[in-house]
Amino acid sequence: MGLLSDPNRRKALTGLLTRLNTPICIVCYLAGIVWFMGLAFEPFTLRTYMSENAMGSTMVEERFSSGERALSLAKEFDAHKRKAGGMPVEWLVKAMQSRGLEVFTQSFSRKLPFPDENKERYMVRGTNVYGILRAPRAPRTEALVITAPCSPGNTNNQAVALLLALAQYFRNQIYWAKDIIFLVNEHDLIGTQAWLEGYHHTNITGMEYSPLQGRAGSIQAALSLELSSDVITSLDLVLEGLNGQLPNLDLANLFYAFCQKLGVLCTIQGKLQRNDWDTAEGYTHAAQTMMLMVLKQACGRSWGDHGLFLRYHIEAASVRGINSFRHYKTDATTIGRLLEGMVRKLNNLLERLHQSYFFYLLPSLSRFVSIGYYMPAFGLLAVILLLRVSFPGLCHCFSVSLQPSSPGVLTVLTPVVISHLTGVALYLLPVHLQEMAVEHFPVSETEAVVLTAIAIYTAGLALPHNTQRLLSGEGTEQGWKVLKLTALLYLAVLLGCTALINFSLGFILAVTLVPITASITPHMPKALYAVVMVLLSPAFTILYCVFIYQELIEAPVSVSEGWMLFLSVISQGILDHALYGSLVYPLLALFIYPCWLMFWNILFWN
Amino acid sequence: MDGTLFRSVNKFFIIAFCLDIKSYKSFMHRPDSFFLATKMAAPLTLLLIVAVTIRAVLFRSSLAELISARVEVVSPLNAWKRVVEGLALLDLGVSPYSGDVFHETPLMIYLFHFTVDYAEIVFIVTDGITALALYLSIQTYNKDVFRKQKYALESDRYSADCLELLRSPKEMFYIPLKVAMFYLLNPFTILSCVAKSTCGLNNAIIALFIFCTLKGSALLSGILLALATYQSIYPLTLFAPALLFFLQRLYIPVNLRRSSFWFFTLQYAFMYVGSLVVITGLSFFLLGSWDFIPSVYGFIFSVPDLTPNIGLFWYFFAEMFEHFRLFFSCVFQINVFFYTIPLSIKLKEHPVFLIFMQIAIISIFKSYPTVGDVALYMAFLPAWSHLYRFLRNIFLVSCVLLACSALFPVLWHLWIYAGSANSNFYYAITLLFNFGQILLVADYFYAYLRREHHLTHGLYLKKKDGTEATLVLK
Predict the structure, then answer these.
(1) For residues A17 and A390, is the Cβ–Cβ distance under 8 A?
(2) Residue of A nearest to B416 (CA)
(3) Are B188 and B375 a contacting pair, CB within 8 Å?
(4) How far apart are CA A395 and CA A391, in angstroms?
(5) SS3 of residue A48 by DSSP
(6) Do B392 and A313 touch (CB under 8 A)?
(7) For a Cys-Cys bond, which of A69, A198, B4, B15 suits A212, CB 3.0-4.6 Å?
(8) Per-residue model confidence as pLDDT tens digits over A421-470
(9) Residues 402 to 421 of B: which have CB under 8 A from any A CB?
(10) What pLDDT sits at residue A522?
(11) Is B320 within 8 Å of B328 (Cβ atoms)?
(12) Residues in Cβ contact with B106 at an 8 Å cutoff, skipping those fewer than 6 apart
């Protein structure tokens, strides 16, 4: 408090901040980036460890042995799937019943706001089949879920078959203290969403589904299994869920521990772990893995069926079998044992997974960066905004704007309101105007939606000239300073809130938005800065992320392919919002974009 | 030589200023002051219309349900859901206080017993009344301030070089309107009204109390203060500023040896306590039992409901060992009342500012605060806009309060829905929010004292050795 109340020290502090404002800002920015890149460097990270006592000390012995039977089941399932031309509901019900489960089905239907061209679906109609294995040893108040999506074509047959084989094996064991639900869902995420909403009696996305006939207790954890070949070379763990939510780190630790125990190669983001952290390649590898995680988390979509469970407070992860050209292969029995071990450990849980971290980044499966380590990277970027706010000229404006005779309020209010109205248009119009667009232009619905969004986005750039006309007087020097102050504060609060919910998104936005927003004034060369601002706008940020992502998964794309991907990313973002309630699209359209427009207004202030 | 010249020039300015004041006074007392009334009535009506429209639109939107479930907006004491529950119990012939859900006072439940179908209108009208009462109080107060300033100028009590600290009618003209606007358009008030939190009614009672006090009606003031105390105990501390105000108004010096002082104090205390007894007795006869005493006042004092809110109590009491509970609830509750004594001594010449300080302290330290309480004292901030030049941290504080308001729902989401954060995150923001509020109040307190100091000692203080002096609040 001494610092705040002693006038002399205050003066010294503000003097220092004023004189060295720009250098401090530059140093903060660079420090933020360096700090972030440093997170992947192994000595700066922590080794993962199992925090949950109930899952730690007691290693279980896995006895699952019917891997071969699972593979033959897979063939049978495949044949029935082909015959039914979709999910063989009756066969599945029979198969589960014969294994002694209580079997129920749930039908659901959903009309997408516009056709999904990636997955080629519009009117979705499907059925979920699930069987409940009742726990013999406990009062059935808690449950675990194992799910396998029934995908079209001949993918994922082995996953469903392994699920059935596990159900048969689990049925004969006596140690279950939690109900185990085996769920085969159709239409991947839409099916999962319908089942979860049915299970929890909620309806947040306007899905039509039949109510669930059978329920178990509150679900503690869920595992989603994706397996498309008889043998695999490695197992990939997918953690990123809806809105960048992650499951408790103990779930990843559990998976890693069993992979180590059974000698299965395990990857995260499809990348194997390397031990040579002290070489340049080793560091690059870890940095790439972490960057992939950041990009996937930032886009806020669910990267597997597990992602939707997280919203319901259920810790969940997807395990994906990968078959590449390695000599060392793992058979279905081992995968079955791995799952058996994980489920038995989860069965031992006395309370929900809560001991370990919920906020983390993984440069590899055995190393993690916790929130305390990565938040400073964001903090260093965010503090620039606050430093610019405390810039004396702006501070003075604040005092002026409080004075009774200030002209500021109205001149500032107009651009703020107009920017936000543009944001609302960007949020509402693309989906609502698709029919009109399809009538007048030779495009499909999906293209219409995406192109309308881009058109509105671009049209927003013309705003400053028009808002100026709406204002009665000339824009004053005072005016833009007050606007900049408002916009900087707004952006700082916005990014802060975003980073708390989804660190990656907040950080990526901060990296691109902070430098330009901190330095913008109307007195700069307009053309040059307009180009720079557009290049650092939210839409271009998405475009860069698409290219970087493709580069990181070692599938680089050409510019035109990248553009097509960019369009599909936008349509997927809008669909994710409509179908599952992902918040990235509304965040960008309703808040980030209007905020950026306010800075655009400052540049063209006259 | 230079000094005398400076003084004489200053004298000239002061006289010119007084002339200006006189012309203003004549303007104020013009027989056809109808003109003035219409000039202010139009914006006030417009403001009321805008405020009512916003509330009506929000009541009709789907947001109303969301808002009424927010812990920042409603507390166990004033949630509308609980009022409805109490009404249902009353209709069934059961005591509404059985079952530990309902904690409103009996008068409140009878008010809503008759108006439950028009609850939305009641809440909107209540906000309007509060704003109007604040508007008229501040108008009265400003006239008063101006009159005093004139007398002080005429009797040469102000230092010569503090001309720029004097308040002019021009800058004071819009202050009442701004006060009303700060109350009606404050998002906190709007949220509180849309959530149908009965906090709005308590605010109205306090605002009416302030109005009656400033108008000089001791009886009404005593009755309303009793009503406010009956509603939520804490306004008890407003007794001291109200008494000081009346004493000042009646030119009775605050002197413990004077019989006139004791006579008036006892008179006012009698009015206050008498109406409190009458109201409590009325409540007893309405319900036929004393159930409401433990259920309302016991609930406020012993803090059994630890639902998170923007206050400081819940986390402490959730974490604490049970056998320390009594001790800490005493400490926490004394905290609210304790500041009355030093503040009354320090601000005995400025009872209206003392009222503001007390309301702020109550809303920070009370056991179940909501944003509605914060809105009430924030409405007074425009009345102190002349202190702006002496405020030191206002910018920092506004940033902190803004950021906290945005972070409350975010951290709540992370804690309750996502399950990835925990109560510590939310409490950290609560702490920061209260820190901001305390800093704000302390800043205004300091600025007020400093202005008074400058008025008597001159604006440009010099140390003994001739260098520029700085004032430090100790």
Answers:
(1) yes
(2) A313
(3) yes
(4) 6
(5) coil
(6) no
(7) A198
(8) 999 999 998 888 887 888 888 888 888 888 889 999 988 888 766 665 56
(9) 402-403, 406-407, 410-411, 413-414, 417-421
(10) 82
(11) yes
(12) B283, B286, B287, B292
pLDDT digit string (tens) for chain B, length 474 residues: 444 444 444 444 444 444 444 444 444 444 444 444 556 788 889 999 999 999 999 999 888 888 988 899 999 998 999 999 999 999 998 888 988 889 999 999 989 989 888 999 999 999 999 999 999 999 999 998 988 888 888 887 777 777 777 888 888 888 899 999 999 999 999 999 999 999 999 999 999 999 999 999 999 999 999 999 999 999 999 999 999 999 999 988 888 888 889 999 999 999 999 999 999 999 999 888 888 899 999 999 988 989 999 988 999 998 888 888 999 999 999 999 999 999 999 998 899 999 999 999 999 999 999 999 999 999 999 999 888 888 888 888 888 999 999 999 999 988 888 777 888 999 999 999 999 999 999 999 999 998 888 888 877 766 666 666 666 655
- The DSSP code sequence of A213-254 is S---SEEEEEEEEE--SSSBSEEEEE---GGG----HHHHHH
Contact between A393 and A481 under an 8 Å Cβ cutoff? The reply is yes
| Burial category of A394 from C-beta neighbours within 10 Å (exposed 0-12, middle 13-18, buried 19 and up) | middle
Report chain B residues whose CB lies below 8 A from the CB of A239: none
Mutate to test the interface with A, among B394, B420, B470 (most CBs of A within 10 A): B420
- State both tokens at A452: 């309308």
Given the structure tokens 């980044």, which residue do they identify?
A361
**Spatial separation of the C-alpha atoms in residues A49 and A368, rounded to whole Å:** 10
CA atoms A54, A55, A58, A61: torsion sign: positive
Structure tokens at B148: 């005093």
* Three-state DSSP string of A12-39: HHHHHHHHCHHHHHHHHHHHHHHHHHHC
**Which distant-in-sequence residues (6+ apart) come within 8 Å of A397 by Cβ?**
A408, A478, A481, A482, A485
Q: How far is CA A441 from the centre of its chain?
A: 34
> Looking at chain B, how many residues does it have?
474
Cβ-Cβ contacts under 8 Å for A394 (sequence gap 6 or more) = A388, A481, A484, A485, A488
Query: With contacts defined as CB-CB under 8 Å, which chain B residues touch A500?
Result: 407, 410-411, 414, 421
Q: What single DSSP character describes residue B12?
A: H
From chain A, pick out residues whose CB is under 8 angstroms from the CB of B385: 402, 404
Query: How far is it between the farthest Cα atoms of chain B?
Result: 87
Return d(Cα B254, Cα B260) in angstroms, integer.
9
Cα–Cα distance for residue pair B98/B94, rounded to 1 Å: 7
Residue of B376, B379, B340 whose CA lies nearest to B358: B340
- Geometric angle at alpha carbon A157, from A156 and A163, rounded to 5°: 95
| Chain B residues in contact with A399 (beta carbon < 8 A) | 388
Question: Which pair of tokens denotes residue B421?
Answer: 């954060």
Q: Which residues pair with A185 in a beta bridge?
A: A149
Rounded CA-CA distance B451/B471 in Å is 11
Contact A516, A598 (CB under 8 A): no
Contact list, A493 vs chain B (CB under 8 Å): 402-403, 406
Enclosing H/E stretch for A387: helix A371-389
The partner residues of A130 in beta bridges, in order of sequence, read A104, A183
Q: Cα separation of B354 and B362, whole Å? A: 12
DSSP 3-state of A131: strand
Enter the tokens of residue B362: 């109550």
Whole-angstrom Cα distance, residue B151 to residue B157?
Answer: 9
Q: Could you report the predicted ipTM of this complex, rounded to two decimals?
A: 0.84
Q: Is A86 left (phi over 0), alpha (psi -120 to 50) or beta?
A: left
**Distance between CA atoms of residues A419 and A558, nearest Å:** 34
Chosen for mutation from A309, A370, A402 (greatest number of chain B CBs closer than 10 Å) is A402
